[in-house]
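ESCALATION

Customer reports they have been waiting on this structure for their group meeting. Please prioritize. Original submission:
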Amino acid sequence: MALGTLDQNTVTYFDLNNELNIPKNGTIQLDKDKEALAAFIRENIEPNTLQFDSLKARFDYLIENDFVDIAMVEQYEFSFIEQLYQYLRQENFQFKSFMAAYKFYAQYAIKTNDKQFYVENYIDRVAMNALFYANGDERLALNLADEMIHQRYQPATPSFLNAGRSRRGELVSCFVLQTTDDMNAIGRTINSALQLSKIGGGVGINLSNLREAGATIKGIANAASGVVPVMKLLEDSFTYSNQMGQRQGAGVVYLSVFHPDIMSFLATKKENADEKIRVKTLSLGLTVPDKFYQLIRENADMFLFSPYDVEREYGTAFNYVDITAEYDNMVANPKIKKYKIRARDLENEISKMQQESGYPYVINLDIVNRANPIAGKVVSSNLCSEILQVQTPSQIDNQQNYTQLGSDISCNLGSTNIVNMMATTDFATSVETMVRALSFVSDQSQLDMVPSVQHGNQELHAIGLGAMGLAAYFAKNQMHYGDEEALDFTNVYFMMLNYYTLVASNKIAKERHETFANFEQSDYANGQYFDKYLHQDFGPRTQKVADAFASHHVPTPADWAQLMAGIKQYGLYNAYRLAIAPTGSISYVNDSTASLHPIINKIEERQEKKIGKIYYPAPYLSNETLPYYQSAYDLDMRRVIDVYAIAQQHIDQGMALTLFMRSTLPSGLYEWKDGHTDKMTTRDLNILRMYAFHKQIKSVYYVRTYTDDAGEMGVNECESCSI
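Update from on-call: job pushed to the front of the queue and completed.
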């Protein structure tokens, strides 16, 4: 039976899976998911997968029909490829849930050109990734196969999907641009958005340097149109450049809260906004210095500053002026045009928009830059708010050429699966294998269509290794999300991830005799980055966590001192190493909970296009783990912020932290609600954002709201930057 003619009425796996949602004798029928998985393999996969007499015959077919990159295959003796497959097969990989298998075959497996048959299974996709990212290195290929077949490492969706294919998209997950205050730069930014959206990945663009609507241009008052028309142009660009119809282009624009257009910027997401200004598909983000929070606390007036005047007075683009340090001087400077609003009015407007749309994201810019170990300034972020790297502005002439080539950002992502990583026999080798795979993507990326992005990539070799499955680990090991043991585990795990990625990057730098650009100006080179690790032991503090890490070497201050000496001597290859991206469909393939977040439901319900509803049980769900799985919508979000905050201290970039709220909040969840309405208000979000700020959270991604009619607002369905 061909895939294209598959009759859903003749298969049993959808009905079996749907029985998950029907309790029997008061219990969840978890066995029905296993039955659905077995039926799916039997009824769909086995009869619809191409079979070959030998592995060599299979590869001949793949090459002849232009499915596989022949240059990749020719890097290896075929006897080695057979050895690799022999190893993968003997590991006896099995999907653990119906959703895992369904998602893999629906989204990742190569199919024949007519979509009638599957050309590969999970082992084949892992083999393609291992061969591709090893780049001819047999030992690395075997190590990568080991990490992926045991699902300790998961490349990001574009990387996992495209690796080894001859007809492939790009492997890079996301990009970050900024524009300067002139028409040439705006035109170049729009062109760059088109080019980058075409090859894949989400694009973040900072517009804070643009002068405000109504500003003077060459002596003509009210000549400037401001940021909103540029936003409309960018939205149309992303809609047009849709990656050959495979998926919608996706972008986010960032603006400083001290930009005069801030209110009109937020208004573009209002449901009742005029179509001339409304942006439907473009995401919004804010860059927020510490000064904004101070003005909120003081219930003070707040001044917004003309970017053109600021640049003229300070000799540098608006993005690069330290507003917290210079705020009073800018207020007092008569040469800088300014606009007065109330800080709390803006704060409330932000919360209103987050209630209504889930936007804007919030980047706490001063927190980011205080923690940034690299020389330069972070001014913006990406589509999912976790990529935080230094940039420098470019200058463009009338021919759209660069008179000054700045540096922008590309980043490729991957994720550890926490539950499975804790079962590795060699944490260091596992992490090194991942860092090498991610570094290969950075090394091989061809991004000359946007020279500033290519320049930044060549300078920094930045990667973004993250994690998923934290909530699953907690439940499996009977820890409540956000409790003392959970925080202790989070602290140790991410300290180790930080340490071993540094070890790996240092090893690569030593091998290649190459560091990222300006390493000598970084806090790694002067040793300042290591101060906290030299003077504080970040090892386990509770017995359960000590037992969990008993089989691993947990780095001590002495280990950190030795690592610091090696880094001072040989440097680091990667300027950035860690970032916690959101995890989308690949979480299901890994039988993992998403990112570091709590679950939404013990049995998750997903609407799958023409198929209907599919149900996914939380990983390791059982009578024993049931009490440890609590919906994010029923959790105090301060517990989520606490978990992210303790991980953040070890992560050089950011984390896509989502807040989960209900329209009607559970009684007793937040003490400030006692005696007041149980409805979510702007005050609730104001308090939580302030709490996140005090906990030194670098970014707040979406606000998702579960409404009283059982709907969700602010749900992120974009997978451009997700793992």
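Sent to customer with the following note: DSSP finds 28 helices and 18 strands in the chain.
Escalation resolved.
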